[in-house]
């Protein structure tokens, strides 16, 4: 597993079950829509109503949902895992929320990678 250096970790109340190392939305629920905005990444798993620590600024570790290369822009898949952002066709605007940049690579889903959390 990669290292992490969070600069800001917030505690929220989990809204439903949340797996560790997944993107979590502003309402405390694990992200369930690909490309959705997120508050940060869960540091542990939690059940509905539990306190949940979320890394918001700095670096953190997240589970990959596919292959990732160093430096890739990262978005969420429908399970809250990290996947590579799609590049929009020229003249189009991306609807994906870029949440991080990859500091590690992954050869496929289920690996844990360090990312730099960003806001775009």
TrEMBL record:
It comes from Achromobacter pulmonis. Pfam families: Phage_cement_2. The keyword Signal applies. It comes from the Bacteria. InterPro entries: Phage_VT1-Sakai_H0018. Keywords: Signal. This is DUF2190 domain-containing protein. Residues 1-19 form the signal peptide.
């Amino acid at each position: 597993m990669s290292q992490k250096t969070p600069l800001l970790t917030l505690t929220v109340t989990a809204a439903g079950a949340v797996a560790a190392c997944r993107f979590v939305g502003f309402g405390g629920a694990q992200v369930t829509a690909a490309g959705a905005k997120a508050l940060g990444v869960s540091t542990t798993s939690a059940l509905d109503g539990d306190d949940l620590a979320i890394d918001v600024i700095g670096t953190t570790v997240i589970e990959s949902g596919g292959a990732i290369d160093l430096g890739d822009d990262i978005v969420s898949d429908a399970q809250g895992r990290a996947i590579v952002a799609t590049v929009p066709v020229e003249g189009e605007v991306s609807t994906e929320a870029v949440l991080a940049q990859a500091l590690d690579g992954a050869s496929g889903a289920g690996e844990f990678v360090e990312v730099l959390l960003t806001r775009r």
